[in-house]
DNA sequence: TTGAAAGCGCTAACAC
DNA sequence: GTGTTAGCGCTTTCAA
């Protein structure tokens, strides 16, 4: 393995000079820089990550915690993960992949070991057990672990187990927990997204809108994005004077068939659907087709889903996109800012955009 | 931050004793061990990853390179990534996520910096440009970078740039490149998978089978799994005396419609389909339904796809599963074995399993 | 069964 | 603009 010392010797300079050429933290004469860079190239030198981390207390690694369970729409997670990784690289960081498996222990382990400088958490739950560890990373309040190791076994000097991780550990959440104080969060503004859907349909003359939602479990357990969407849908419905019927729905054909039958039974005058459930989209379209209801002539469909799903569906869907890439990119940039001492705790809700495609049109004349 | 020295002081032992308690590399009296463990707990000690890596030349990190482009079926990648991560954790390793973006440079960077002890590469191409760097990791042939830094600029001492990465860097590929010498690979035996599909359908009396394949681009560029499947399909078709028509197909409804029309035009007697393209599965089923062809009464469909796709389709599909979890788990276990000095270069092809579900049945009586 | 001490390769004062 | 040097926190001989 080539070391910095070898590079220094090869270039005929001191070790610190090589280090400074690498970090750019002090000015170097053009000539010296050239020689050092040449030596680095010739020797195929790569700085040792461990040594660097030890000396600088910075690992240049960001941890990304993804949920273990996979009932969220997987491609979105993947897209976020890829966006996080490429954005991180662009800022000189690598990405450590963690699954939710270890729970809060993973946070302690990674923070405590200095494996990563900061972390991004996906799919945070409303009252996530990892949150207490993460609060208050923004304004470095030095209320961290106070106990020193100047006492011996037997005295009561416990530390850390239930307090926050060090202040040098920053986190950004993708999603919105119930209580965001002391946290930095990024998410789509699902409330606005819901409102946007109703607004669009109301403007087209629809007066009876049905909402096909996520699986029931999602409404209880998750980040609350489903509830927020519902909020937006409902308040806009009130404002626009349209009727709204909401039904959760497990994905797949069978479940969608049951849900659709119930909806049409209860509200035969339904002329528009808002779908927030990737695995219900295609089944819904198939069932409508099968029942001889043309989209968008007889019924309109608007989805809240990733762009790709909307475009690849059997009818190109009018939709509000879930901006996975932006969320990943934004999360990294915010985290890097915090690590650099810039940046602060804040909640950023990305503005939704509705793209009109082939699945929505004017409400049919009243029966 | 709590250090090992602090733990030692707190427990009233030396630093090395704490270290050995942690590593288990020498015997410790029950009493000492208890005291040390107690101190570790009380102080909330976590070993510093950088220091450990520096001192031991082991990072306990595995790098996972996933392809940047996302035209492979994403959920499979995600499933592999999760399996890799949880398996790695079970062996005491963390996972560093890399995208293909950086190409071969990522391999050099990670190997050179000691960021990871080994790597797993997904979606390797037939003639991947990263392969030359990876060959021969199995039997530690010390033909690595020979040049020492005892020469100065001007002499001809280049190193590394086009030679293999260090012998301490092991790799396992998920997928099968054209030339596997000196490489360790894990993949599904797609050849056997293809054969299995034809065998199943032939046994049911089908004599005219159509194969809906991956997008044309996949056949040129990729790991060759598509060609291997085709090999298996064809040779078994020959053996079973059935006719086989293969057509690549872009995913989606429009493309599938065109492809299906062509197939039925060319082979009107087709009674069975083998599909190896996740995004063509549902379109095919929908189109068949639409044309009044019942599955499995009129036509049988067998898919090569992840279990989940087969089960969630509008007709539960007879399928050969793509064992994403096993592949991820196996890759890690093999890599860990290599890192421990056990293990060797070898190609492991997982045996395919065909699960009969609702989409395949006896061939209809000849027209 | 335990301790003392020499590094691992790098960064960042501190000197000049 | 450059060199010297003292650690960073851990592992691992070597000694006892």
List the domain count of chain A as a whole number.
Answer: 3
- What is the strand arrangement across the widest sheet of chain A? 2-1-3-4-5-11
Quick one: overall form of chain A?
elongated
What does the average pLDDT of chain A come to?
89
Task: State the CATH topology of the largest domain in chain A.
Answer: Rossmann fold
Radius of gyration of chain A: 26 Å
The portion of residues assigned to helices of chain A is 40-55%
- Sketch the topology of chain A as an H/E string, one letter per element: HHHHEHEHEHEEHEHHEHEHEHEHEE
Number of helices of chain A: 14
Structural summary, described in words:
- The structure is a homodimer of 367-residue chains.
- Chain A is of the alpha/beta class and 367 residues long.
- Chain A folds into 3 domains: 4-47, Orthogonal Bundle (434 Repressor (Amino-terminal Domain)), CATH 1.10.260.40; 61-189 and 325-350, Response regulator (Rossmann fold, 3-Layer(aba) Sandwich), CATH 3.40.50.2300; 190-322, Response regulator (Rossmann fold, 3-Layer(aba) Sandwich).
- Helices cover 42% and strands 15% of the residues of chain A.
- Chain A has 14 helices and 12 strands.
- Chain A has helices at 4-11, 15-23, 30-43, 49-56, 74-90, 104-113, 131-134, 190-203, 216-221, 225-240, 253-266, 278-290, 307-312, 324-339; strands at 61-66, 94-99, 118-122, 170-174, 185-188, 208-212, 243-247, 272-275, 300-305, 318-321, 347-350, 354-355.
- In chain A, the strands form 2 sheets. In chain A, strands 2-1-3-4-5-11 form a 6-stranded parallel sheet, sandwiched between helices.
- In chain A, helix 12 links the parallel strand 8 (272-275) and strand 9.
- In chain A, helix 1 crosses helix 2, helix 5 (74-90) runs parallel beside helix 14 (324-339) and helix 8 (190-203) runs parallel beside helix 10.
- The longest helix of chain A has 17 residues, at 74-90.
- The N and C termini of chain A lie far apart (80 Å).
- The model of chain A is unreliable at 138-162 (pLDDT under 50).
- The first copy, chain A, binds a DNA duplex (16 and 16 nucleotides) through helix 2 and helix 4.
């Amino acid at each position: 393995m080539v070391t910095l010392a070898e590079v220094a010797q090869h270039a005929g300079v001191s070790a610190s000079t090589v280090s400074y050429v690498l970090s750019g933290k002090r000015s170097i004469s053009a000539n010296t820089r050239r020689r050092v860079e040449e030596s680095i190239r010739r020797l195929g030198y790569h700085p040792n990550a461990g040594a660097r981390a030890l000396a600088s207390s910075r690992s240049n690694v960001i941890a990304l915690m993804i949920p273990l369970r996979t009932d969220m729409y997987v491609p979105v997670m993947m897209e976020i993960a890829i966006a996080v990784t490429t954005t991180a690289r662009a800022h000189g960081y690598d990405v450590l992949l963690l699954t939710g498996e270890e729970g809060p222990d993973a946070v302690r382990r990674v923070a405590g070991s200095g494996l990563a400088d900061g972390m991004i958490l996906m799919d945070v739950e409303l009252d996530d057990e990892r949150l207490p560890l993460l609060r208050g990373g923004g304004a470095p309040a030095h209320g961290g672990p106070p106990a020193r190791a100047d006492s011996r076994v037997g005295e009561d000097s416990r530390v850390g187990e239930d307090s926050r991780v060090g202040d040098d550990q920053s986190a950004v959440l993708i999603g919105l927990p119930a209580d965001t104080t002391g946290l930095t969060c990024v998410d789509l503004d699902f409330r606005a997204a819901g409102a946007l859907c109703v607004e669009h349909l109301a403007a087209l003359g629809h007066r009876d809108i049905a909402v096909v939602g996520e699986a029931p479990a999602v409404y209880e357990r998750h980040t609350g994005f489903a509830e927020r969407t519902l909020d937006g849908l409902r308040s806009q419905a009130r404002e626009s004077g349209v009727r709204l019927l909401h039904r959760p729905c497990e994905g797949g054909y069978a479940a969608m068939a049951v849900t659709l039958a119930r909806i049409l039974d209860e509200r035969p005058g339904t002329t528009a659907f808002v779908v927030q459930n990737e695995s219900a989209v295609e089944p819904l379209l198939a069932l409508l087709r099968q029942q001889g209801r043309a989209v968008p002539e007889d019924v309109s469909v608007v989805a809240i889903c990733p762009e790709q799903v909307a475009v690849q569906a059997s009818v190109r869907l009018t939709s509000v996109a879930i901006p996975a890439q932006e969320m990943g990119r934004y999360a990294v940039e915010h985290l890097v800012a915090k690590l650099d001492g810039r940046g602060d705790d804040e909640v950023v809700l990305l503005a939704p955009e509705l793209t009109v495609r082939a699945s929505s049109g004017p409400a049919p004349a009243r029966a």
